[in-house]
């Protein structure tokens, strides 16, 4: 055999080996997706719920402890003014939760409903549309950040908590990083839709350790602490980057194909705003309805009312965090069943009872330990009355009960239905809170939220879900009767 023939043979062998490896990798990815996306079975759904809730339960105390360490280090090494700026700037992201226009809802449904998310054409077109729109969102946010810096308006917007030396530039960098993060943050939604919500939770646990590492480096180098908040936003972007890399591998080559389509003007994307706009309304209205209680108490109530409410909310909020994480894991389960036109492996009604029962048990334990917890947190300076504890317990149970129904209604019409009722909840919730605070004090906002959630979320969603389940039962029984 001459040298040329030997070289051709070696090339052919290498080519065959590469093709074999590609087939093996492809088979491995398909098997991995099939195993991860085993959301059509009761076992797979329960495992997804338990793993998500368990991961959140484990992550919460670690993040809380490290958060305390970060606070202490900032105050000790850089002073209270730097800490105030840090807290202020970190909160900017919370002021614009609608920056992605609710587009991730369309991505969640498309991924969960795809038979093969690696090659599904509808998913590709949805991603094409979302990538183009998210690029526009990114451009707007970054442009606003630069304009605010160039015009010197940051101190006017954010107040005296901004330090003159670093405040404006730090705020600009935070908002700019936040804008760029919009381009890749949807990777976490893809993972959740694939049944990998536990990975999302574990990745989020890296946030505080990364900030702590950046803070330690700043202290060692002797630099100022004015840009610590920027490190927090960069940590979020790093986590999003890791998530998008994992997601891209799991659905390879979908993201690469969608990106090529997004830059090609000849490719027409899918319709996404029918799902995005009702999600956008919820993202704007719910924080106003649920997160304005402290502001209203500050304006209408007393300092004692505000401190009692804040401490009780701090004690009970970890339960909601765990419930929210577990409830979010139901979204792809119901979306997958809806796309296939079949019954979900778990009943939203039974899941509602399970969620409510678990929340009730947790609320009873926290209420029993509230005296000790309040002493530890406030040094015995804040006392939590029984009516406030019971009200928070009931609120936690009702919030937990409504999650499965809300996750069942995540298609375009279901999200529209929820959005309209949430808009109706706003004036009722705020009206009751404002009118009851002079009489009931710290309990008033909780009662307002209970009434709002029961009559504008839990009951309407329960009614619509029952109707949908009845219609689905009719469609599945009729063909059997006809045969």
Task: Write the topology of this structure.
Layout: H1 3-36, H2 42-78, H3 80-90, H4 92-95, H5 103-113, H6 121-151, H7 154-158, H8 167-181, H9 187-193, H10 197-204, H11 207-221, H12 228-250, H13 254-263, H14 273-291, H15 293-300, H16 303-328, H17 330-340, H18 348-368, H19 370-378, H20 386-408, H21 412-440, H22 443-482
Helix pairs in contact: 2-3, 2-10, 2-11, 2-16, 3-12, 5-6, 5-9, 5-14, 5-17, 6-8, 6-13, 8-12, 9-10, 9-12, 10-12, 11-12, 14-21, 15-21, 16-18, 16-20, 18-20, 20-22, 21-22
Structure description:
- By secondary structure, the protein is mostly helical.
- Helices cover 82% and strands 0% of the residues.
- Residues 13-28 and 30-36 have low confidence and may be disordered.
- The radius of gyration is 25 Å and the shape is globular.
- Helix 2 runs parallel beside helix 11 (207-221), helix 2 (42-78) packs across helix 16 and helix 11 (207-221) packs across helix 12.
- The longest helix has 40 residues, at 443-482.
Tertiary shape: globular
Q: Termini, distance in Å?
A: 68 Å
Q: Oligomeric status of the shown chains? A: single chain
Global structural class: mainly alpha
* Arithmetic mean pLDDT: 86
Radius of gyration: 25 Å
Kindly give the count of domains: 2
Helix fraction, binned, reads: over 70%
Number of helices: 22
The number of E-state strands comes to 0
How does the major sheet shape up? none
Which parts are unreliable, with pLDDT below 50 for 5 consecutive residues or more? 13-28, 30-36
Pattern of helices and strands: HHHHHHHHHHHHHHHHHHHHHH
Strand content: under 5%
